[in-house]
Amino acid sequence: MVRLEKAEGGIPMYLADAIKLKQLLLKQIDKLLEEVERVAFIELEKDEPLPTIQSRSLEDIEVELESIRTDLRRLDRLVCEANLRTVVETNDGPLPLVEAMEFAIQLRAQARMYQDLAERPKREFRTGYGEGTAVIKHALYDPELYRLKARDVEKRANRIASAIEAANHRTEIDFDASRYM
Predict the structure, then answer these.
(1) Model's pTM, two decimal places?
(2) What are phi and psi of 43, to 5 degrees?
(3) Rounded to 5 degrees, what angle do the CA atoms 160, 94, 115 make?
């Protein structure tokens, strides 16, 4: 288990949970911004007096927003640090999580390119550009070979993604999420 150094005294949580919490905090910020619109303005008839009591003030919402944004920045920093410090073993050697994530993305893109090439015909007959001539577009590669390459590269990406997922569930960060989870 990879454990990061204690920071500012929170309860450790797993990196996988931190990623989910980040999304939750972003949703809470969106909801609070919507609430700002509801409490910042009121529509009244011309001579109707302003209400003296509101359920929450604009200042209350601002304080809560600032607190969540502070936690989000701290959580983001801790996730970034964990992504740099945590190393996963791959067939291509040990890689920090951040690099392994990018590598998996690149491998998936490469596999899609290979699969696209594999799905193309070896020869494609096209109509000519005038005078009824036949044009044949020839693939200068073997589509079956690229189907196999696509499968192999996809397997590599899946193995790395699996190692990343495992690391996300064993890497702890020092963040107290009890306010949110």
Answers:
(1) 0.78
(2) -105, 125
(3) 30
Amino acid at position 25, single letter: L
The total of other beta-carbon atoms located within 10 Å of residue 41's CB is 8
CA distances from 108 to 17, 91, 147, 158 (A): 25, 16, 14, 9
Helix, strand, coil shares of the chain, percent, nearest 5, are 55, 15, 30
Rounded to an integer, what distance in angstroms lies between the CA atom of residue 132 and that of residue 120? 24
Q: Could you report the per-residue pLDDT of 118-162, keeping only the tens digit for each?
A: 999 999 987 766 667 788 899 999 999 999 999 999 999 999 999
Q: Which residues sit opposite 89 in a β-bridge?
A: 94
Token pair 């070979």: residue: 145
Residue 149's closest CA among 120, 178, 116? Answer: 116
CB 153 within 8 A of CB 114: yes
Give phi and psi for 132, each to the nearest 5.
65, 25
Do the Cβ atoms of 97 and 164 come closer than 8 Å? yes
